[in-house]
Description:
The complex is a heterodimer. Chain A is of the alpha/beta class. In chain A, 67% of the residues lie in helices and 8% in strands. Chain A has two domains: 2-41 and 217-412, no CATH class; 52-196, abc type-2 transporter like fold (3-Layer(aba) Sandwich), CATH 3.40.1710. Chain A has a four-stranded mixed sheet, sandwiched between helices. In chain B, helix 1 (2-20) packs across helix 8 (226-256). Chain B has helices spanning 2-20, 22-47, 65-73, 100-105, 122-146, 183-212, 215-219, 226-256, 263-287, 291-309, 320-325, 330-343, 348-372, and strands at 53-59, 78-83, 92-96, 110-117, 165-170. At the A-B interface, helix 2, helix 5, strand 4, helix 7 and helix 9 of A face helix 2, strand 4, helix 5, strand 5 and helix 10 of B. Strand 4 (120-126) of chain A pairs parallel with strand 5 (165-170) of chain B, so a sheet runs across the interface.
Amino acid sequence: MRRLLLVLGNDVRRHLKSPLAILIYIAIPMVMTALIGIIFAPRTEESTLPPIAVLLVDQDKSFVSKILLGAFDVDEMKKMFEVTVTDEAEGRKRMEKGKASAMIVIPEGFTLDLLDAKTTTLTVVKNPAEQFLPDVVEEFVNTLAVMLSGAVQAFAEEAKGIRAMLDAPVDAIPWEALGPELGKAQKKMVAAGKYLNPLLIRLKEEKTKAVGAKTQVTKTDLFSIMLPGMAIMFLLFIVQTLMRDIISEREDGKLRRMMTTPLRPMELVGARLLGGWIMGMAVLLVMVALGTLIFRAYWGPFGWFLLLGAAASFWTAAFFGFFSAMVKNRNQAGALGAPVILAFSLFGGSMMNPEAMPKAFRAVGAFTPNRWFIDGAKLVREGNFPLVPLIVLFASGLVLAALAVPALRRKTSV
Amino acid sequence: MRKLQRILHVAWNDLRIMVGDKVFVFWSLVFPMLFIVLFGLLFKASDSAPAVAELTVVNLDEGRWATYFLGKIEAPTIEMKIVTSEPAEYSRLIVLPADFSARIESRRDQALAFKKREDASTKAAARVETRLFQAIARVLSELVLYGDGDLAKFLDGHAEFRDIVQVKSRFPDNTVTVVPSGFDHSIPGTTIQFIMMMVIIYGGITVMEDRKKGVLARMLFSPLSKGEVFQAKLLGRWFMGLVQALILIVVGRILFKLNLGSFPLALLVIAVFALAMAALSVFIGSVCTKEDLIIGLAVLLANIFAGLGGCWWPSEIVPLGVRKVAMISPAYWAMDALHKLRFFQGGFADILPNLGILLALAIVLSVVAARSFKVRD
Lengths: 414, 377
């Protein structure tokens, strides 16, 4: 046991002397979590979307089009839309640059058509590179069109009067006759006020969840959900790097020389597996500490999480012990190791939420440590003991260790 | 001429060795295809709201106005389920209270409870909500128009609401007719990401190993100069990126009917991007002495560049600040050019700025890589 610990201590010191690769592998999950968190973190309740960049092309250049432009200048609208007045050619260029989601074209003669109560059409040119925001603009313009249609019909008589005034020379307008007409319009506006101020019918929105459904995730929740997936993925990378010593020492003759010392193959194998396990645990703890400090991630009861981390590190060390015994040389280990880890991570849910995956992918995921670690971390976060993930990880880890030890021993007995 | 032949000879043999490796197939085809399928399905699933959005109506109204109001909501894209009590399962629900008609007839304002499940489709919810706003606007307009007398008699007959202002939506001229989604997004994104990952990992490691094992030094015993060895290595890695891109595009075309807009221009963008990555791989392979370090750096850089550059998700969902930071990513310029070609059917002039930036990056990285390139440790 003393000799085993000596080898183990020496291995740890050696890896701590050149830690750059390990540090990079620790940095990657942090950077990726930060990036995904910034993009997908839920925003404030009031504005779940960033202001949508909308372009307005006014080919009418008359007073109704100006009123429409003014509608976008209201505070409520400013939260939703960022409007820029432009022409069609410039608008297209802006859309190509990704600077606008849609372009609203007010056609020439729009005001006159409305005053004549003739059907007229607003055009919404949607940015084809976007999938969601242009539809929001289209629906908004549809609602605006309904309101405008209603206003035009409500004030049809007045509209005719305005139309006549627009056509006639100033001296031909019967100004004295306008008083009663304006009085009628005022009455209509007062009457409309009964329905519009306050709105006779309005919606009171409420977000609900089904019985047993999850509450809406916060930014901290998102980080807490993502980090275990990232952590197990890069734990695999790091432990693989550490365990590759077994192959490189065999290849460059160090192993042969070590076996000339009073060291039994079993002790060396034990030290390597134990080293992978302990260093894996240490790396995981560093990631947990960084996640807690940087992202304020929460892990649930820490003792249970530690147990889960121990199971995952044990599994990883046992797996790469067995893997190192199976591959022929360092090149093969390097070439196969990364694909295996990435496949584990892809199917196991480190790269995306398993619930969003196709069924076939999820089924394959059950054979990966990532899936069990992520499921276990979720249980711990929710305050439940991760019994099944622990059993699966420890039991399959033991099987792998049982396979790895004799295979490694054979490779070590030079 | 002979110099070029020598460089091409080494580069071609480098490519042959790399392509002959079984792991190359995994990195250049199998794993990217898994990514393409997964992200393609994911984009399709999350992008498209159901064709018909469901709305549950709890109709408790004791008068005639509920039917009139519901008539205004009706649309081919909305499926209404009328019930008399709130069910346990629903996606979105509106409650018309018992005094709905009475309140309208007495001109008393009211707020209708509109409930949305947090986990239901946000797109479908937005569609229903907009339709509800439009229905309210129609009802109020008709009331303003014809509701100056006894509202109890209002429903007995009045002129119909006319949609005087209509809305037509389209895409810009000479672009697309349908919004590209799913695989059209995931294939270019995955291709760009894996060119970065594959070229840096594979290209970097082989440069490092050739140096450490003395292969590069021995190559100088042939009629090759150090500069020619560097150029050959750069060219070999560039070929590797191109081969990988071609494989993914061809498979994408056959299996997923991938449309890149202009194929030659898309290939030009990928070629310039691959050249920059080839230079980066030679640089990393020249300065790193450990394989794990190269893999770590490659994974770190490729993921950051891919995430920022729009390889994983559409840029419209990315906050404006992040979009500006994304410009440091070479993947951003490549993806932006591919989007111009695909979504706007752009031509050479449209992607010229992108090509210019990628080419400048390739030149800078090549110069840096050439300076760092060494044949011995």
